[in-house]
């Protein structure tokens, strides 16, 4: 299938656009710049391994890599950073260091003088209850548009660039008790498919069934409808759109065991609005991946900083007149995306 970053050398070129042309575009000052990073998963702990003990995790080094990324963005003078979830590791709660570790990570962004937009992953919900997160620095920022008591939001980064951020754990068993409004829906979703003693085990599950694990989650019907409305509104205003969420929604951009439970519903909405959609950016799958869906939307799964063995995986995006160029660091490739609405073509 070839969707993992180690096989991505061909994506250093956009089709018909070699790197020397990208360099020529880059010589023109961008209208807006932002950073992207996923799965820092910092913990003040010795190195460990993932659940299957196949990949080593470098808990303390991840903070150093984040610091290096922030220094790069500071030099670039980015306007904002998109933090794609799992900013600290679940080990922090076990060791009773959740608040301390979160603050250490957030402190790294303070020198940027740029907005940082967060989405929640499973590890945020291992450390904190949803109601605590809603009152934290990881909640939607002032200036964002979002329904009351919801963690999904949108914000206009540039007059012709809108960011839409999803809450991929709105329907979930993580960080909530059985009084939560979507608790029964999450329970029934898992119980209908996953018959294992532990719902974090994919044993016996095949194909796309492997996504029905407790460490994944879903978007409510209300959120999917809100996404549709946001994209329609962006289209009416000739705004290009970037959608972010912790969980991938395209099978060929990630392992099936890391997909959003109702990825098909979200993918359908993104496809309906291909006239304004640029890309969907996510984390969670530490290998990273990339593909385009049938509508031509780009799906970029950023590899996890926590398991980085080949440099420091993060991206820096430049918004130009006709393209959005994501410059990759580490094993993140360069990706050039044509704007649906070139800068300057906004309605009067």
Keywords:
348 residues, six-stranded mixed beta sheet, 9 helices, 14 strands, disordered N terminus
Describe the structure.
- The protein is α/β, with parallel strands linked by helices and 348 residues long.
- It has a domain at 5-29 and 121-338: Metallo-dependent phosphatases (Purple Acid Phosphatase, chain A, domain 2).
- It contains nine helices and 14 strands.
- The chain has helices at residues 19-26, 61-76, 91-94, 98-107, 122-127, 130-134, 183-191, 221-236, 263-272; strands at 32-37, 48-49, 56-57, 80-83, 115-118, 153-158, 161-165, 240-244, 277-282, 289-292, 298-301, 314-319, 323-329, 335-338.
- The radius of gyration is 19 Å and the shape is globular.
- The protein starts with 18 loop residues before the first helix and ends in a 10-residue tail after the last strand.
- The model is unreliable at 1-18 (pLDDT under 50).
Task: Give a concise summary.
With 348 residues, this protein is α/β, with parallel strands linked by helices. The protein has helices spanning 19-26, 61-76, 91-94, 98-107, 122-127, 130-134, 183-191, 221-236, 263-272; strands at residues 32-37, 48-49, 56-57, 80-83, 115-118, 153-158, 161-165, 240-244, 277-282, 289-292, 298-301, 314-319, 323-329, 335-338.
